[in-house]
Structures are given as C-alpha cells and as structure tokens.
Amino acid sequence: MGIGKACELAFTAKIIDAQEAREIGLVNQVVPAEELKKVTYEMATTIAKLPSIAIQLAKRGLYQGLDGDLPTQLQFEAFGVEACVRSADFPEAVMAFLEKREPKFAG
Fold first, then answer.
1. Which DSSP state fits 88?
2. How far, in Å, are 4, 14, 35, 90, 96 from residue 9 at the CA level?
3. Alpha-carbon torsion 64, 69, 72, 75, what sign?
4. pTM
5. Percentage, residues of the chain above pLDDT 70
6. Per-domain residue ranges for the chain?
7. For residue range 29-51, what is the model confidence (pLDDT) as tens digits?
8. In contact, 53 and 107? CB cutoff 8 Å
9. Rounded to whole angstroms, how far apart are CA atoms 55 and 50?
C-alpha cells in the first residue's frame, strides 16, 4: 500500500472489508475464518522446508532494500548468493533437483 492510501485510512478511520484490504496490499490473502489456521500452517510449512540461510538473507535483503541505495543492495545480493552457494544446503539442493526428490536442508 502506498503512503497516500495509508494516510487516507489513518486520517479518515475508514473501515475497509477483507477484499479491499487484499486489493491494497494490507493483507496477502483472504480466507474464510475456518480455513485460516490450515492456510497459515501450510504457508509456515512451505517456508520451513526451504533453506534457512536463504530465507534469512532474503528477509534481510528485502527490508534493507526499502531504505538502501542500489550499490549497497547489489553488494548485499552478491554476498547473499555467495553465502548460499557456500552453505551445506547448496549441494543438497542440486542433488535433490537431479534426483527429482524433495531436498532435506540442514540449515
């Protein structure tokens, strides 16, 4: 959501429904209440199966990129790629791909 829409909501105290919240990027998904726990656990499981170092670096890079300049961000991206390639999870990812199986990341 952009600053304009954020200001509108904050200054007017406008109540919005779930669909509008999704459309403006306030929430990522809208699900029925009875499915919320299931959908949340599915997303958490998906993330947990990925290599933890890659997730940590992606999270840091995304948040750092909000305020950072391009050269700094490119330097961080290069660092992140090198860190991932040097991790024990990289050869596991390659082997799992070649063997057409789910990888088992160690972290």
1. T
2. 9, 5, 27, 44, 47
3. positive
4. 0.74
5. 100
6. 1-30, 32-107
7. 999 999 999 999 999 999 999 99
8. yes
9. 7
CB 5 within 8 A of CB 24: yes
Range with the poorest average pLDDT among 2-6, 54-58, 72-76, 94-98: 2-6
Closest CA to 55 of 28, 89, 78: 89
CATH superfamily of 32-107: Lyase 2-enoyl-coa Hydratase, Chain  A, domain 2 (1.10.12.10)
What is the distance between the alpha carbons of residues 83 and 80, in angstroms, rounded to a whole number? 5
DSSP 47-58: HHTS-HHHHHHH
**Structure tokens belonging to residue 93:** 């990812």
